[in-house]
Amino acid sequence: MNKLKGILEQSGLSSKLVMLFAVLCFFVLILTPISSLISVSSLSAVEQMKLSQLFLSIGTFILPPFVLAYLCSKKPSAYLYLNDKMKWSDAGTIILFMLLIIPVVNLLGDLNQQLVLPKSFSGLENWMKLTEDKATRLEEKMLQVHSWYALFFNIVLIAVLPAIGEELFFRGALIRIFREWRGFQPAIWIVAFIFSAIHLQFYGFVPRLLLGAFFGYLLLWSGNLWLPILAHFINNVVAVIFYYLRFNGYKLPDIDSIGFGNTLWIGLLSGALGIFGILWLRSRFNRQLNNPGNL
């Protein structure tokens, strides 16, 4: 196995992309029979769906980046920007920032949903709406639980695994590959576009694109993938917890509707704080800006 370590270190963009997706397909093929067994089990349809997603999340997003890093570098952890520890002060800052920008993310999502395509694209628009509605119904079925242990499982499935897996795959592996082709900042936006498009939720495309870009810039500024992982986790876990509490009768506001409509002023204030926060984070993590070759 050691002979394979770093074997693709000098290979180009195409070779690394092909290898990454070949490894992804390999794990999907390995895990498909497991999903088939789950589908014929005595579990409910929602439980089957959750368990299948658990295995597929690991196989499609978590394992392939580690295999690629092993083949492309003598230091796989450094290749995926995982070699630095996360400071508690940095973690607290990121958590606070992600909570502050929730309203402006909602505002951007509301504006995104109001976009209307020309009549000539009505067929595409109808398909996009159907896809969006299907994804929304699927998410709601997964989130509708009553027990604390089911909430914990949802947090693992919807917040922990996507935060780790998607950041490893997109900000870790793909940004590493594309930055060798066009540089770090173009790679951030290329990967953010892919990240948003792959979710197939078109009426949330813009806020997801901008969040993906922010995660990429956070990696650029800090050189530490753990910070985008934490930011991604906070973005997801807040929604999971609020949905659980509201579904189980707790009198809380709908967090997804804060920032537009009657609370537009909160969204605008959140946007102003978000811009200030991004500039502040950029200056806080200026080590990589001054010496980006360390990344």
In short:
It is built from twelve helices and no strands. By secondary structure, it is mainly α.
Structural summary, described in words:
The protein is 75% helix and 0% strand. The chain has 295 residues and is mostly helical. The chain folds into 2 domains: 1-79, no CATH class; 85-294, no CATH class. The mean pLDDT is 89.
SSE topology:
Blueprint: H1 13-39, H2 45-72, H3 76-79, H4 88-100, H5 102-113, H6 122-143, H7 148-182, H8 184-197, H9 205-222, H10 226-247, H11 264-284, H12 287-290
Give the oligomeric state of the chains in this entry, treating copies of one chain as homo and distinct chains as hetero.
single chain
- End-to-end distance, in Å? 26 Å
Q: Any idea what the shape is?
A: globular
Specify the structural class: mainly alpha
Q: Which regions have little confidence, pLDDT < 50, spanning 5+ residues?
A: none
Report the count of strand segments: 0
> Sheet with the most strands?
none
Output mean pLDDT.
Answer: 89
- Report the total helices: 12
Strand content: under 5%
State the domain count.
Answer: 2
Q: How much is the radius of gyration in Å?
A: 20 Å
How much helix is in the residues? over 70%
What sequence of helices (H) and strands (E) makes up the elements?
A: HHHHHHHHHHHH
Descriptive keywords:
mainly alpha, single chain, 75% helix, 295 residues
